[in-house]
Every structure is written in C-alpha cells, then in structure tokens.
Design brief:
The protein has 252 residues and is α/β, with parallel strands linked by helices. The chain has 7 helices and 7 strands, in the order H-E-E-H-E-H-E-H-E-H-E-H-E-H.
Length: 252
C-alpha cells in the first residue's frame, strides 16, 4: 500500500489543522521514539482506553514521519464524510466475514511491505478493566506478525482518558492534562517462528504482546498492574460498546 498523493496531501492538511488543536488540549511527554523501526514496515500495538487515543497514536507517529494506517471497524467507513476521509488517508476496514477479513489482512500486509506502520489494538475495543489496564486480547496482531515477520512495536499511552473518559459525552480540558506515550523494544516473537499458526500459538504470541504493553503502561503510571488480565468474555461482557454490568464491575 503505497500512500497516494491524495493521501499524503490529506494527512498534511490534517497535520496542519489537527495537531495544533491536540497540542492545545494536552501537553506531550513522548519517550522511546528511537525504538521505531526505520528500515522496514512494522506493526504498532497500543493500549486502548478512550475513543480519542487513536488521535494520540496518529499524532505521535505522524510527528515521527510515519504514516499511520489503522485497522478500523468497517462500520466507520459507512459514516458520511468520515468514511470517505478514512478511505482517502488509507485506513483499513475490518470486516467480520471471512472474505472481508482476508481483504483487510492483504491491505495490512501491503502497508507493511511499503514500509509503513499499521496500528492494531490487540484488545479490539476499549478495555473493560475497571482500572484501565490492558485486558485479554484478540489474535489479529499476532497473526499478522507471524505471517509477515514484521516487527511488533508495543506502545503505551496515559492521560488522554482524563481529557475524554471512556464513553464520555464531553471533553474535560481544564486544567490542561498531559498525554504520555512510551514506546518499547519490538516484541521478541522468534520462539514462534517454526511453529504452526494454531490457536495456541496465536494466544501465546498475543499474551507476549500484551505483556509488553502492560509493562510499558506500568512504567508510565508508576503502578503495579493486576496479576491476572481482565477477561471480558469470561465475565459475559459485550464485545464492543459501553458495558455496565448490574454489579458495577467493568469499564464505564
């Protein structure tokens, strides 16, 4: 997926208009920029705590001269104006059908092959963990990494949720908050190189990726993460959208 002239132009316009707004909304503390691969395409795996954190991730990557390509819900591409914009800037719709999933995977491979960065949230949706730690994830990032051998770069961010809490209806701009981003070393998945890509292999590789993200987030937060990762499926929570169980557990 070589970025088209229209895509580069649109990103440039967004950079000129959106970046100043983000800079006004939040101070930045970014670390680990030197760990982004520069000689090849790669997969970025961030934690997911608020609807605006894709803006944080895109802002961070764009400032490092990396064109951000997200795997995004196919439903977003059906929204007037937004859908057209997402297509122009080369974002990748994720379909639930087998054919659609294969098409998404091919587009992600193309982005990596062209030297770009493809962003995949291993959790698949906003974390359900009540303390906003990474929860049990999906295997898409691990599958793509094992199939392409592309480096997987873990990323943690913290602070954007104070500006726009999960499922909030308004922004909280004052006092001004700080958005912290920390990039880690590419996740070592070499032990899976010679193994068949089975469910067990994918689950183990996914856990390795989420462990790396959690460790970075613990460093940012200066807190100890929970001993066991939150499992939304085991708690019978909805796979997407707001989920407020009767017992009060889960992310709001």
């Amino acid at each position: 997926m070589t970025d088209s002239a229209a895509s580069r132009l649109t990103f440039s316009v967004l950079g000129v208009t959106v970046r100043p707004l983000l800079n006004l909304m939040m101070r930045k503390e970014w670390r680990g920029t030197e760990k982004l691969p520069r000689e090849s395409g790669f997969i970025v795996c961030p934690n997911h705590v608020t609807e605006i954190d894709p803006l944080v991730v895109a802002h961070f990557l764009f400032n490092q001269r990396v064109m951000p390509h997200f795997l995004a819900k196919a439903s977003l591409f059906k929204v007037p104006v937004m859908g057209s914009l997402l297509r122009v800037i080369g974002q990748v719709p994720v379909e639930r059908t087998t054919a659609g999933a294969n098409k998404s995977l091919e587009a992600a491979r193309a982005a990596i092959a062209s030297g770009g960065g493809i962003i995949i949230y291993p959790e698949g949706t906003l974390t359900r963990d009540p303390a906003l730690w990474p929860m049990k994830g999906h295997t898409g990032a691990a599958r793509l990494a094992l199939q392409t051998k592309a480096p997987v770069v873990p990323m943690a961010h913290w602070g954007a949720h104070e500006v726009f809490p999960p499922y909030a209806k308004r922004f909280y701009l004052f006092p001004r908050k700080t958005s912290r981003v920390l990039v880690g070393e590419p996740v070592d998945l070499s032990e899976f190189d010679d193994k068949p890509i089975t469910r067990a292999t994918l689950d183990a590789a996914t856990d390795r990726i989420l462990d790396a993200i959690t460790a970075l987030l613990a460093e940012l937060r200066q807190e100890e993460p929970p001993a066991q990762r939150w499992d939304a499926t085991a708690r019978q929570q909805k796979p997407t959208g707001r989920d407020l169980p009767a017992n009060g557990e889960g992310a709001a």
